[in-house]
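Support request, please re-run this one:
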Amino acid sequence: MGAVLGMDFGGTKIALAVCALDGRCLARHVLATSPDDGGDAVLGRGIAAGQALIAGAEPRHKLAAVGVSTIGVPRQDGVKLAPAIPGWDHVALARSITAAFGVPVRVATDVKAAATAEARWGALAGSDPAIYVNLGTGLAVAIVVRGRVLEGAHGASGEIGYNLVAPGDVGSEIGARPMLEDTVSGMGLAARGSRFLGRLVTAGDVFDAAEADPEMDAMIGTLIADFAPHLVNLVIAVDPARVAVGGGMVRSWGRLQGPLERALKSGVPFPPELVLAAYPFDAPLVGALALGAEAAGARLARGPDFPQHKPEARR
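Re-run finished. Output below.
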């Protein structure tokens, strides 16, 4: 029986899964990205982990294809807009993974892969149009129209992390101006918390500390306030039926949902439904598996059956 390998290269972790074409998960594994080692090392670790995962799966399931999701925008000669992994812009993912596994490979941006999963089996199924928002290590969205994810002329549709944050930024080159992702992301929140405390902390640490620390809670409030007008403007432009939110920060969905809903209801002529993603933390990997099945000329009969961890009840 055929099987597909899904690989999700993120800023902090590499997630992998092998699934049969009927949707049964045969094996899963997660390892740290360790981006400071450079793009070639990250890719090598991911390939080695994928080969080990396939070798340990049921032997009667032959690998038919590989689907890959990645931070940034994958192109033939590298992955653009992915500064979180040094050297990733020179890594030819599709060619390298094809050479390693000897089967068809399909590659997509992680947020677009996630939106594919949510549109096919998750919170955006039947919603047209729809928006998927990733609030994780970075920030991006994907727009779904008639069940298909909008790619854009260069594959960069939805890269709102590059949005301007002030009128004075108009005319400034990328890299010479602040970007929305600098503040509205796990990276940005962690950096702000680390500066305040004088030690390295994660975005999760900030959310945890916010329950008792007004300064930390104010940082989260600032993140939401910075993001809300961009979300409202995007929704006004697209007029979606539903907006689904996933990514690492939705572990604190209870803190995020209320303010974002109020912003949409007060600022949008026809407010959409705002929901938590059905695959809040695994949507890019689920989308990678769907891409792998398509590369094999097939389609997963259903969404992968691995369990979903619901967000914790943080503020």
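The first strand starts at residue 2 and ends at 9. The mean pLDDT is 92.
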